[in-house]
Each structure stands twice: as structure tokens, then as C-alpha cells.
């Protein structure tokens, strides 16, 4: 019997509770999920790909130990087109989280293109009501402009919150510089 493999790809910079919610619910739909961590060329990364892979592996391991039912998950990084990565791992579908109608418009265009170009379907998982306004960009802005790290507990797992705090404490990290500048204003 063929396995139904899905790819859940993104930059995950940083991983949010919304990402984990989409993954948790997606596990009931597929036999195996490969979480693909790539880079977004339009954004300056907060974490290296290696850091994001480590964090995601830890979070996935924790999720699978708490919820044994559902698809097995693995985490890989990739540096090419997402559809090429999906083909390489044998995916029949890509998982995309949708927060609102603005997300849906762009994601539909991408889904149609992926189906035409690569023959890969897209499955949309609507964000849980708690995570409808959570985005990695918002998290990076709060962290960079001096927002309280404690308030990030609403948006990110504790592991990610601790990693963001370490970045803010590292004087050589751009996040620390931005936080200092925000405090000075």
C-alpha cells in the first residue's frame, strides 16, 4: 500500500504555536509528514536553518510523545524550490495553514501553480481560532523592538521563547541591537 506523504514547508522563523497546531491536526490526515524548513529570500532570518531544524525536531518529538496517534513526522532542511523538495520526498500533497482570507488568496494562486507545475495537491488547514493572527513576522517584530519576551508565550512554545531571549542577550546579534535601539527611543 502506498503511503500518503505530505510536506509541511515553511521558513518557521520562528516556529509558532499556530504552526504546531496545524501540524498536530494534519497528523490525522496523512501517513507521514515531512516538515521542510527552507529560507525565505525576502526576509532576514532570526534563526539559522540549523537552529530552526533543531528547535522543530525537539518540538515534533515532544508532540509525538504526547499524541501518539497520527502520522509519523520528520524534519529536514531544503535549499531549492518547495515543489522540488516535495517531489524528492515522495509527497502527494503540501500542507498550508490559512489564517484569513488574505492568506487564502495568495495560497490559492500558489496551490494552483504547484498542481499545474508539479502535480502536487495542496491541503489547507484553517488556523485554530487562538492562532488566527499569529505570524512569525509579528513575533520577530515584538522581539526586535523591545517587546516583553514574556508576552510571546501566547504565540510561541517555551523552547522558542528561550531561544529568542538568548538572541536578545547576545550583543553580536542584530536582534539585540534592535532591542537596544528601541529601548533608547
Keywords:
alpha/beta; Rossmann fold; 5-stranded parallel sheet; globular
Structural notes for this entry:
This protein is of the alpha/beta class. It has two domains: 5-131, Rossmann fold; 136-184, no CATH class. 46% of the residues lie in helices and 16% in strands. It has helices at residues 17-26, 49-66, 82-88, 101-118, 136-144, 158-169, 174-184; strands spanning 5-10, 32-37, 72-77, 93-98, 121-126. It has a five-stranded parallel sheet, with helices on both faces.
CA-based gyration radius: 17 Å
Q: What sort of overall outline do the alpha carbons produce when their principal axes are compared?
A: globular
Compute the number of structural domains: 2
**Proportion in β-strands:** 15-25%
CATH superfamily of the largest domain: HUPs
**CATH fold group of the largest domain:** Rossmann fold
Query: What's the level 1 CATH class of the largest domain?
Result: Alpha Beta
Structural class: alpha/beta
The biggest beta sheet reads: 5 strands, parallel
Order of helices and strands: EHEHEHEHEHHH
Instruction: Tell me the distance between the termini.
Output: 62 Å
